[in-house]
């Protein structure tokens, strides 16, 4: 009896892990034909789509050919060379034939690979200054392929920076029509340290000094808004915006899609400002929490306090087209699988209650639950598969 009394805590701990593992093992597999486009792969970390593939594997979504989706194989775009610093070994583009055959086309990132990005080697850090492009931008034929998928009734998802530079005007117009949004050319990002020259791009500082005719002397956290190279606005925390300056809010139209996503979550990375067309619905919005000085600055630029974060365009005879107005899938999540049922929900709860805060909070609290629901609603057209 004494032995049993001491062993029950270990049995309980074992059950805590064995039950979620067993439920995950018992979860049925599902086959979906998913095409992911990621042209921004200067290094092997593939950070622009790695977290998406982690979720695909966790949800046990299989390839039409069988087997799991593999981060370094099952995408289109740039494939890095064998050593850090090498240019892309090869590239692949999206075609109309491939797009219309897919169940889901996901344009994760089309910014591309640039000469100076390859110079950091092992640290795998993007350059802070502009340099010649090696590969990148959504080509007109690829934009037409994405639009063809929508016309074929398939699901399309696009993220920031699909509409931005270096994508040209013809491809952008095709994508805007398919997604039901129009780009204002304004982009932005939060920086924890505006005075950190190793984080804030040099071209951003230069554009500010050119427009304002004074040096960049900002310190502390804040947001930088850019429109091409012509306009630069800086909103400093506690001067123009509140400590949590920009948050995502679920709209009633989202319904079940965002039912498990956390509301009013802060967003920490790149975003852009887009307008929506009449047949496009805003499912989630960004909202500025400004101080009086910040509100004046936004008004002077003609920028809204509330703007689209997640949109969905639906029309008779067309597939749904979603636009995520932020770099949503860009996340430093490790590629290590965690075969435990309910793990994403657990991380959502831990992050939301601040018991385990991390830079991954947006992923677990908003992106992962949204994408889980979205993926579960994509119909499979793979014959002979569930």
Written description of the protein model:
The protein is built from 9 helices and 18 strands. The chain has a domain of 247 residues: Rossmann fold, CATH 3.40.50. 39% of the residues are buried. The longest helix is centred in the first third of the chain and has 25 residues. With 386 residues, it is of the alpha/beta class. A 10-stranded mixed β-sheet has the order 5-4-2-6-9-18-17-16-13-14.
Order of helices and strands, N to C?
HEEHEEEHEEEHEHEHEEEEEEHEEHH
Under CATH at level 1, the class of the domain at 26-185 and 272-287 and 306-376 stands as: Alpha Beta
CATH topology of the domain at 26-185 and 272-287 and 306-376: Rossmann fold
The assigned CATH architecture of the domain at 26-185 and 272-287 and 306-376 is: 3-Layer(aba) Sandwich
CA-based gyration radius:
22 Å
Instruction: Write down how many β-strands occur, each being a DSSP E stretch of 2 or more residues.
Output: 18
Adjacency order of strands in the biggest sheet? 5-4-2-6-9-18-17-16-13-14
What is the terminal-to-terminal distance?
A: 50 Å
Uncertain stretches of 5 or more adjacent residues: none
Global mean pLDDT: 91
Distinct helical segment count: 9
Largest sheet entry: 10 strands, mixed
Molecular shape: globular
Range of strand content: 15-25%
Structural class: alpha/beta
Helix content: 25-40%
Topology:
Elements: H1 2-26, E1 30-31, E2 34-38, H2 50-58, E3 61-62, E4 76-79, E5 90-91, H3 96-101, E6 104-109, E7 113-114, E8 133-135, H4 140-151, E9 155-159, H5 169-179, E10 181-191, H6 202-212, E11 222-227, E12 231-236, E13 241-250, E14 265-266, E15 271-276, E16 280-290, H7 292-301, E17 306-313, E18 321-324, H8 343-352, H9 361-376
Parallel strand pairs: 1-3, 2-4, 2-6, 6-9, 9-18
Antiparallel strand pairs: 4-5, 7-8, 10-11, 10-15, 11-12, 13-14, 13-16, 16-17, 17-18
Helix pairs in contact: 4-5, 8-9
């Amino acid at each position: 009896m004494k032995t049993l009394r001491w062993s029950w805590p270990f049995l309980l701990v074992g059950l805590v892990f064995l039950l979620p593992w067993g439920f995950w093992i018992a979860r049925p597999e599902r086959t979906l034909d998913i095409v992911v486009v990621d042209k921004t792969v200067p290094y092997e970390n593939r950070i622009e789509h790695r977290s998406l593939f982690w979720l695909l594997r966790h949800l046990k979504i299989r390839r039409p050919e069988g087997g799991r989706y593999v981060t370094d194989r099952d995408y289109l775009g740039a494939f890095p060379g064998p050593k850090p610093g090498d240019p892309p070994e090869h590239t692949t583009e999206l075609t109309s034939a491939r797009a219309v055959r897919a169940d889901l086309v996901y344009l994760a990132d089309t910014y591309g690979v640039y000469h100076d990005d390859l110079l950091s080697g092992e640290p795998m850090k993007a350059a802070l200054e502009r340099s010649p492009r090696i590969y990148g931008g959504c080509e007109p034929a690829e934009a037409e392929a994405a639009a063809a998928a929508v016309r074929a009734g398939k699901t399309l998802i696009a993220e920031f920076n699909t509409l931005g530079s270096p994508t040209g005007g013809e491809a952008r117009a095709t994508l805007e029509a398919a997604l039901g949004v129009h780009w204002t050319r304004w982009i932005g990002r939060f920086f924890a340290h505006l005075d950190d020259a190793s984080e804030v791009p040099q071209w951003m500082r230069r554009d500010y000094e050119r427009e304002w005719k004074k040096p960049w002397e900002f310190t502390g956290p804040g947001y930088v808004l850019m429109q091409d190279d012509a306009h630069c606005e800086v909103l400093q925390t506690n001067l123009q915006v509140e400590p949590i300056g920009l948050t995502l809010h679920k709209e009633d139209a989202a319904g079940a899609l965002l039912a498990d996503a956390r509301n009013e979550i802060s967003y920490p990375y790149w975003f852009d400002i887009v307008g929506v067309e009449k047949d496009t619905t805003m499912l989630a919005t960004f909202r500025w929490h400004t101080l009086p000085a910040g509100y004046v600055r936004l008004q002077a630029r003609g920028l809204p306090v509330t703007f689209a974060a997640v949109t969905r365009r639906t029309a008779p005879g067309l597939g749904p087209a979603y636009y995520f107005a932020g770099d949503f899938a860009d996340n430093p999540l490790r590629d290590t699988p965690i075969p435990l049922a309910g793990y994403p929900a657990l991380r959502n709860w831990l992050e939301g209650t601040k018991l385990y805060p991390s830079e991954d909070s947006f992923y677990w609290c908003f992106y992962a639950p949204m994408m889980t629901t979205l993926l579960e609603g994509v119909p499979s057209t793979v014959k002979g598969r569930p």
